[in-house]
Amino acid sequence: MGILVVGSVGLDDIQAPAGSRTRILGGACTYFATAASLYDRVHMVAVIGNDFPHEHLEFLGSRNIDTAGLQVMEGKTFHWSGRYGPDLDDAETLDTQLNVFADFHPAIPEAWRDLPYVFLANIDPELQLEVLEQMRAPRLTALDSMNYWMGAKRQALTRAISLVDIVLLNESEVKLFAQEGNLVAAARRLLQLGPKALVIKRGEHGAMLMTHNGDLRGDCFAVPAYPLDRVVDPTGAGDTFAAGFMGYLARCGELSIGSLRRALVHGTVVASFTVQDFGIDRLRTLTATEIEARYTGLQHLTYLAPPADVTALERPFK
């Protein structure tokens, strides 16, 4: 199989109550690829400058990641600096330097244009559209975005959303894009644009999956966040959530409402590991066995006897 991911690779400075780190490996593409490589082969398309440390390239090469689509340009690598307050909610951005990322245009290698699973990380929606135009017949496409693009590139983002199968956004982004204060109503409005499913990331409150009808009997599913006694750094949690979600679907090879629900739990579990250390440090040692153990733990935590018509959840997704 194989998963294509297109996004940013960067060098981050992070300040949090637990400490601080400088010039650590970051970027949405990095977080996604590192986590998703535990499930399937990942093919990453991004851009770095010639200042990018060789040790980071060695790390990516040591994973189940193909970096042939990583462009190297003259100049500096994308850099982000952020600070978290005591509650570890949204980061305060201290500095953003696009550097070579400002001129990035994704070029999908010819051999990758038939990859079945495509994840468009949070980048300019015009670039997301460029990727979709280069792919031939992907089995499943998904995208992430953020509030900035909803104002600066709303038309392009709307077009991109209409062309993918799954959209992943956080709760405030769903409401902002739909211009609707009620989450369920906002989700239904977004789904009217064309995607078959919406994944709503809710941070410490878990995640929700909405499909077209929004019927609580089958087309709406919610899972809590995995309980943790210590959170170190939330950076990249959303990207690794997407990695667990897409990675599971690629690995199981099944597209049904039931598989999407299981994928939502995998996303929640993988994100719960990410936040337990700075950057991708916890992901460096994370194993599939640990993921399965925490998945089982979350099952026990939320167990409720299934309805009699549970087999209906296995109907085809697409």
Feature tags:
11 helices; about 325 residues; alpha/beta; 13 strands; nine-stranded mixed β-sheet; UDP-N-acetylmuramoyl-L-alanine:D-glutamate ligase; about 35% helix
Structural commentary:
- There is one protein chain.
- With 318 residues, this protein is α/β, with parallel strands linked by helices.
- It has one domain (3-314): UDP-N-acetylmuramoyl-L-alanine:D-glutamate ligase, CATH 3.40.1190.20.
- The protein contains 11 helices and 13 strands.
- The protein has helices spanning 28-36, 54-62, 125-134, 147-152, 154-163, 171-178, 183-191, 237-252, 257-274, 281-285, 288-302, and strands at residues 3-6, 10-16, 19-26, 42-49, 65-73, 78-83, 92-97, 117-120, 140-144, 166-170, 197-201, 207-211, 220-223.
- A 9-stranded mixed beta sheet has the order 5-4-1-8-9-10-11-12-13, with helices on both faces. A 4-stranded mixed beta sheet has the order 3-2-6-7.
- A hairpin with an 8-residue loop joins strand 6 (78-83) and strand 7 (92-97).
- The mean pLDDT is 94.
Binned, the helix content reads: 25-40%
Classified by CATH, the class is: Alpha Beta
Q: How large is the share of residues in beta strands?
A: 15-25%
Number of alpha- plus pi-helical segments: 11
Largest sheet: 9 strands, mixed
Say what the CATH topology is.
UDP-N-acetylmuramoyl-L-alanine:D-glutamate ligase
Give me the count of strands.
13
Strand order of the largest sheet: 5-4-1-8-9-10-11-12-13
CATH superfamily: Ribokinase
Q: How many whole angstroms does the radius of gyration measure? A: 18 Å
